[in-house]
Amino acid sequence: MATLVIGATGGIGEALARAWPEEALWLSGRNEERLDALATELKATPLRADLGYESHIRAMFDSLTLPLDTVVYAAGTALPEPVQGATPDAVRRVWNANYFGAMWVLKYGLPHLADGGRMYFVGARPELVTARGFGQYAASKAALARLLDVTRLEARGRTLTLVLPPAVDTPLWTQVGRTPKGAMSAGTVAQAIVADRAGAGQPELRVEDTAG
Amino acid sequence: MATLVIGATGGIGEALARAWPEEALWLSGRNEERLDALATELKATPLRADLGYESHIRAMFDSLTLPLDTVVYAAGTALPEPVQGATPDAVRRVWNANYFGAMWVLKYGLPHLADGGRMYFVGARPELVTARGFGQYAASKAALARLLDVTRLEARGRTLTLVLPPAVDTPLWTQVGRTPKGAMSAGTVAQAIVADRAGAGQPELRVEDTAG
């Protein structure tokens, strides 16, 4: 079973790389140093890519030597700021990480999926992110969800799963200033994805906090 | 009552410019020839702007000489193509017209609104646009709706109305190949917005076909 984890150098992506069953594993990230260290530790293949570039994403898939059974898109960024204070650089970074990167991964990744292959994309629950300062984050995650709805119609037979965790304790919150109280660990989300991959595919995976 | 119509050289925007009560009217569009002709005909002030540029949108609002009572964002484009055939140019054009232009209009337009001023944005009903080839269109309209949800929290006291017409007979459909049977006229949507502006503000204006 060949797997590619995109956004593997932190948060849910890194937890997933660590939790994934031992098999052919490719890890993609932008930070070369952290990526190489993690890939060495996990005996995985590092694929450096900046998700802001279609060309990087195309090259990443072109370099694969096996059809993929699983692709997990775990990249994401928040960079909160009010709409009236929106800055082009933050807007571009949020949209590239949360939407456009995922869109090019669909374009170039779908042809590389093995029969029965699946793709996972980490989304956001609207009720948790419709909040001041989260305009670009909430909008880009809404866009991702709708794009998956349309892509399922275009690529019948492929399972595209939108993962909807509650708030998760990841480095993303360092951009916000604090991690929400009771945030789920990235490892719990990773375990939920591993468990889902072993079952029948579904369009949406709501990860629930069962500890409480 | 001062009004700015963005995307005024065709479709719903042009119909709205024609239907709007006689008063101070600014019209914005990208096609200078059509814009100037329409502005001359309607005794309005033309403001040429390409919505793909934040700088154009900022300059457009900076050039206004009155606070605005109403802003209508009627720009939009579809350029359908499957996600697996997505091309950077079409993706950029759809997103600039449907989302990023609207986002910069919120940023620069909100400070220019008069007391009691309102903004209208033409959206799309999810059930009508979740269709093959409409990935970028559906996703960008979903993003717009969510951005308005967040911006309402940030700019309390401002009425931001998402207009949700059924399929409308506009030039947008020339990109698709055919206008859907029974499509509503752009003039009917324009009249619904004029009528809504005279009433109490609301976050969503569903334009219904009452002829059937």
Automatic annotation (TrEMBL), chains A, B:
Entry superkingdom: Bacteria
Q: What InterPro entries has UniProt attached to this entry? A: NAD(P)-bd_dom_sf (IPR036291), SDR_fam (IPR002347)
Recite the UniProt keywords alphabetically.
Answer: Oxidoreductase
Q: Which residues cross the membrane?
A: none
Pfam family for this entry, one: adh_short
In terms of SUPFAM superfamilies, this protein maps to:
NAD(P)-binding Rossmann-fold domains
Q: Which GO terms describe its molecular function?
A: oxidoreductase activity
Family, according to the entry, reads as follows: Belongs to the short-chain dehydrogenases/reductases (SDR) family.
Write down what this protein is called: Short-chain dehydrogenase
Q: Name the source organism.
A: Deinococcus aquiradiocola
